[in-house]
Each structure stands twice: as C-alpha cells, then as structure tokens.
Amino acid sequence: MTVTTPEMPGLHPVGDTARHIPPASVARLTIYLRALNSLLAEGIERVSSEELADAAGVNSPMLRKDLSYLGSYGTRGVGYDVQYLNRQISIALGLTLDWRVAILGAGNLGRALAGYSGFVSRGFEIVAIFDADQLVVGSEVGYLRVSAVDDLETVLERTRTNMAVLAVPASVAQELCDRLVAAGISSILSFAPVVLQVPPHVQLRKVDMSTELQILAYHAQRAQEPDLGPISRAQ
Amino acid sequence: MTVTTPEMPGLHPVGDTARHIPPASVARLTIYLRALNSLLAEGIERVSSEELADAAGVNSPMLRKDLSYLGSYGTRGVGYDVQYLNRQISIALGLTLDWRVAILGAGNLGRALAGYSGFVSRGFEIVAIFDADQLVVGSEVGYLRVSAVDDLETVLERTRTNMAVLAVPASVAQELCDRLVAAGISSILSFAPVVLQVPPHVQLRKVDMSTELQILAYHAQRAQEPDLGPISRAQ
Asked: Which residue spans adopt a coiled-coil conformation according to this UniProt entry (chains A, B) (predicted)?
C-alpha cells in the first residue's frame, strides 16, 4: 500500500485536505478516534504519538502520516491535545454533520445495531427501524417503535433520514436498496450477503460477517501452515 | 494501493502462492467467492472475467490480477469454470480447513451471528455460544444451547474450537480475549468497540459497526460537500 501524498510539515486547513485522505488512512482515523475517546474518558489531556499509536495498534510513523492529512503534527516533547485531535478527526470524517440513520430489518442484527451505544457517541442518531413482519411492526426496540416497511418512504421523509443500514435477508436487499435510493437516500451501509447495484451518486458500503471470518481464516491458515499436513490442505 | 507482485502469466501452485496475497486482494477474493456462489446457485457453469468483475463490483483488470495470485487465468473466449474457481479461491483462503467457531456473547449480535447462514456455507461451523447472564445460559440459540462463560475453557476444549468471535461489551472484551488466548485460541474476530492487546502469534481482526458508519460518513460528506454551507462544516 503506497500513500502518495508526501509527508511534509506545514499547515493544511481541514476543509481543504479532508477531500484527499486515502481509504486506509480514513479507516485508521476511526481507530485513533476510538482510542482518543478512551483517553478522554480517563481524563487524559495529552498523548504522545507513540502512546496513541500503541493504543491504536499501529506504528507511530504511520500514525503521524495519517494525522498529517488533517494538518495535525503534534508538538515535539508535548504530543497531541486529546480533545483537539478528537475534534479534528471528527470534523475530517464528517462526524460533526447531522447523520440520521434508519435501520431496515428488526431481526437480531437490526436490534443489535439499534442498541449499539457506539453510534450515538459518534454522532449517528438512529431515527427509525423497519420490518416487514406484521408481528414485529409496532414493537419497541430501545426508544424506537418498529415501522412497517410498507411505510418506508413516508417515515424516511418524516424522520429526515439521510443514511440507511440494510440488515435484511439477501433476497430482499436489492429491492429495498432501490426504494431507499428512489427516496433520496444516498448513503447506505449493507449487511446483506449479496452484491448490490446502486447509481454512481450513491455511497454504498458492504459489511459481510462471513467476509471478515474468511479474511481471518486466510491469515490463520498462513500462521498455522507449518502444523498442517498435505491431506488437510488438499481436502 | 500498489500491488507489488507483477502480473505475468504462468502457473503458480496454490499451496505456494497462497502465502503472498496482498490484503486488499484477499478481501476481494471473498467478494468473488460470494458472486461465484450465486452463479453456482443459478446453475451457471462458466463466467467471463468481465461478468464476474461486474457481479463483484470491480473492474476486470483488477479481477484478473487478483485471480493471478491463485494461478488462475481463465481461457480467452471461454472464461472461468465457476465450480473450479470457487474451489481454488476457497483453498487459497483456507476455507477448506476445519474451522470450529465459538461465539462469546448471546445478546442480539451474538444471536445474529449464530443464525447467520453465510457462515456454514463458507465452511465455518458454530460449535458453541457463551454468555455471562445466568438467565440466558441454557437457552437455545438455533441448534445450540448457551454455555456459561465460567465454563469457557472446558467447553472450548470439548468442542475443539479453533476460532472465536467476541460479541461482548467493551468492558469485558480484553479479559475474555486473554482467556481465549490462554486456552490456545489463536484466531479471534472481535466486534467489541475497543482496541485489544494480543500476543504476536494471535490473529485478531476487529469489526466495529460504528467504524463502517464513520467511513461511510466520510465518503458521504465528500459527495454532499457542494450542498453544505461553511456553517455546517465548522460545526
């Protein structure tokens, strides 16, 4: 993985550089943010790049490179101001905007997502949850009541939803995705184990539980290979 | 992102090249596998690189490069044998090995994972699910009965678990992770929103729902920027 922006000191206003952060750095910024939130919770006000890198599980040159995209370089011998850096990363990631999230699917996964405390603390407000099952519609999930998926368009408009999470079976994911797009939702996170087609203006991210396990299996296999005989490899 | 292995034709036995697949290609191989499984389900026997690339949402030079790590080049005008390619990718990812997975935490997320059909179809067998809540211990989740986390080590040994999923609150994740490692589990997927420390020999992957939403927010912000005034950027 090659980061093409040169690592050079200087001041870059966030509003300008936030457009050009490489995907791998964006992913790591979310990890730094999590570590900074833990530090804040412990009442720690300053952190060195080595400490923060350690807490995030990366090396400190990589951390410094990632933070350089925000124009944040810390001060030698003093480190980073935890609260300020937290704020800088939040702004760069767009977390200070008003994200109103609807969850489609009130099964175990949808309920797990609706109850996930990490969303609210990062600026994501869950404003609606939908299900197709009439036995589930109207029941309570946290502080929300499950809406009927038949009322999708009406409820999305009323709740001013601008981001949606698909926690539905693969068989209905594309149809619901199309309805979301038609209703003007252009940011969609899908947990459905299926490839979805969306127009170019729509931001779609896919999370597949089995993908993560498969990637883990690949690395685990490599780590375990010396112990495996040819028979288990072949079968 | 730069792929360092040159794209050149030739035969690479899977057992040899599986060690050197770049992380981004590993992630995409899981997507091709998903697309191939859909084709198999439809009874389709051959697929062109363009069709498979389309189904996976990548361009076909990238697909061909990724598949070249497996020594798979297709045949011009004929394409790939769906079943054979499926098998090749499965072997390369280590999915033909015997993965016996324990889930720690029988809340909504743990139950969602335990009931996820995509695991079994990819070679992951859920062999145990644990919870600390005595009211939950003994209850049924799919075909499993929830075990007490107090019995973790005994049950892991009895079920010959070799992979674990942490679907527990952040506050207990490190302690349970330590117990898994001490019990000899070296492949762990964590959904806990916290940075975990593990010894170097342990493969740990973290999935954080809010990370995915944050990455989505970053891209959505970029896409929406023309519509946003400076006030919403600053706040």
From this structure: none
